[in-house]
Every structure is written in C-alpha cells, then in structure tokens.
Amino acid sequence: MKIPLKVEKLHGGLKPFVTFICEFPRYHKRLFVNAFVDTGSNHTSIALSQLLKRGINVKSIIDENDFTEIMIGGAKHKGYPIKERFDIRFLTQNNKTIHLKPEKLYVYLPYHENKEGWAMSYSLPSIIGVDFLIHHNLSLYFNPSKQMAWLEREE
C-alpha cells in the first residue's frame, strides 16, 4: 500500500507533504490537512492555524494540564494531545480511502503567551512525525531531485 506525497518548498528546501482529511464528529468539521512528513519530529500534530480557520476552539479539544514541552522552529512550545474524538483518512495511489489514526495527535500552543509566541505557533505546519510512521509501520521514500515521494507499508 502506497500513499502518494507531494514535494513542496518549506523554509527554503524541498520537503515531503501528505494531504489527509481530519474529521471532528462532535463539531461536524472536516479539515483538509497538508502535513509535512518530518523524520526529525517525534510527534504528529495538526496546525493551530488549520483548527482556528475551521472554527474549532482549541481549548475545548485539549486538557490544558496535559502538555509536553517541545522545541520547533527554534522556539519552545507546549504540545497538547487532542482529547476530542477525531478520524483521519488518507487516499492511496489506487484511490482507496484508508483510516490511519495516530496514537496521539498534538496541537502546539506557545510556551510564552505573548504576541511573538502566538505568531510562531500559528505559523507552524501540520506534521506527520516518526511516532505515526512507527505506529503504522510506514516507510518514507523521498527523492527530491525527481520530485517523488510516498509513504509505503508492505502488506
């Protein structure tokens, strides 16, 4: 099974990205998420900006006392696991929909709640981290010179 990826520019370099659908049934909200597949990130996250743009109150889907301190983009953030029920679906190269849910899906909020902290957290992309790759036994193929990338799980 292969999940096709796109190769896009991020911070001056080519990176692999995957698009998936994330649904929050309680809110009747569906998000089309473009996530950076980041082998340098331990955690899978959904961008604060994407949640806010769809009208999801972030404080209502997290426990404010349960967070992990994390460095991303040179700044410290608080990573909150999403407690609200959600579903994630990907499209395979054969146009089949598959459900691959992370063990935890985080949203990153600023460590220092000031204007700069919020701006930095708002600018972070959604990320598919190593936790997701391990949990679903996925391998990443990435050839930036040919603009080719995919996630693959041997069946």
Structural summary, described in words:
With 155 residues, this protein is mainly beta. The protein has one domain: Beta Barrel (Cathepsin D, subunit A, domain 1), CATH 2.40.70.10. Helix content is 14%, strand content 43%. The protein contains three helices and twelve strands. The protein has helices spanning 48-53, 115-123, 130-135, and strands at 2-4, 6-10, 13-24, 29-37, 68-72, 75-81, 87-91, 97-99, 106-110, 126-128, 139-143, 148-152. Strands 2, 3, 4, 7, 8 and 10 form a six-stranded mixed beta sheet that branches. The protein has a three-stranded antiparallel beta sheet with strand order 1-12-11, with no helix packed on it. β11 (139-143) and β12 (148-152) form a beta hairpin. The radius of gyration is 15 Å and the shape is globular. The protein starts with a strand and ends with a strand.
For this entry, give a set of tags.
155 residues, mainly beta, Cathepsin D, subunit A, domain 1, 6-stranded mixed beta sheet, 3-stranded antiparallel beta sheet, 3 helices, 12 strands, 14% helix, globular
